[in-house]
Amino acid sequence: MFYCENCKYLNNTSVCGFCGRTGLRSPVAEDFCYLTEMDVSLGKMLKEIFDAENILCAVIPSGDGFRSSLALPLGNYKLFVPYRDYEKANEIIKEIFENNCSALKKELLENLGKLHFSGKTEKKCRKKLKLSKETNFLEFIKEKVASAEKVFDAGASSYSSFGRYINVSVGSWTILIITGTWEIVSVNKTE
Ligand SMILES: [Zn+2]
């Protein structure tokens, strides 16, 4: 493992995959390493969990230029932990992520009846997916969602002022839904 002092990324080779710096050194226990970037609320929750586990965690706000230009609070946190706790911190994230998935799926299934989409989205998706006129698109999507294999939080929605994106995947299908309004915003299928 190699450590980039410039951007705090851990790399598998001596060249930083993020900034391109060469001749990276091996990490030492005290090096703060980039762990993940997440939504402010999840980031805060994670920091509290790390505090409880005695893992030092540095948090730096990060966000897109659009939010910055409007002087809105930055949307994301970048989290850093010392190299000695890097693996443990990753394990914790993995665990939370998995718990979060099953809770989200439950919430989604409880709100299955509220799913809807705009006429524009339906038209676009029907065309893209080459669905026949006879197919009831909403019922079709509901069936997909009900048998979802993976459900994960895809971050705060920039599309609606409240709510979050939920990414649902089943087979080669990916469906993006906004919580709260339960609007389906996109449906994709990989060949
Ligand atoms: Zn770098």
Short description:
The protein is of the alpha+beta class and 191 residues long.
Number of domains: 2
Largest sheet, strands/sense/barrel: 4 strands, antiparallel
Which term fits the overall shape? elongated
Strand/helix succession: EEEHEHEHHHEEEE
Helix percent band? 25-40%
Cα-atom Rg, whole angstroms?
Answer: 20 Å
Average pLDDT taken over every residue: 85
Strand content: 25-35%
pLDDT < 50 stretches: none
Indicate the structural class. Answer: alpha+beta
Largest sheet, spatial ordering of strands:
6-7-8-9
Number of helices: 5
Ligands (ions, cofactors included)? zinc ion
The termini sit apart by 36 Å
Please describe what this structure looks like.
The chain has 191 residues and is α+β, with helices and mostly antiparallel strands. The chain folds into two domains: 2-98, no CATH class; 111-189. 35% of the residues lie in helices and 27% in strands. The chain contains five helices and nine strands. The protein has helices at 40-52, 65-69, 83-110, 119-129, 137-146, and strands spanning 2-3, 10-11, 32-39, 58-62, 76-82, 150-156, 164-170, 173-178, 183-189. A four-stranded antiparallel sheet has the order 6-7-8-9. It is elongated and about 60 Å long. The chain starts with a strand and ends with a strand. The mean pLDDT is 85. It binds zinc ion. Zinc ion (ZN) binds at residues 4, 6-7, 9, 16, 18-19, 21.
Task: Summarize the SSE layout with pairings.
Blueprint: E1 2-3, E2 10-11, E3 32-39, H1 40-52, E4 58-62, H2 65-69, E5 76-82, H3 83-110, H4 119-129, H5 137-146, E6 150-156, E7 164-170, E8 173-178, E9 183-189
Antiparallel strand pairs: 1-2, 3-5, 4-5, 6-7, 7-8, 8-9
Zinc ion binds near residues 4 and 18.
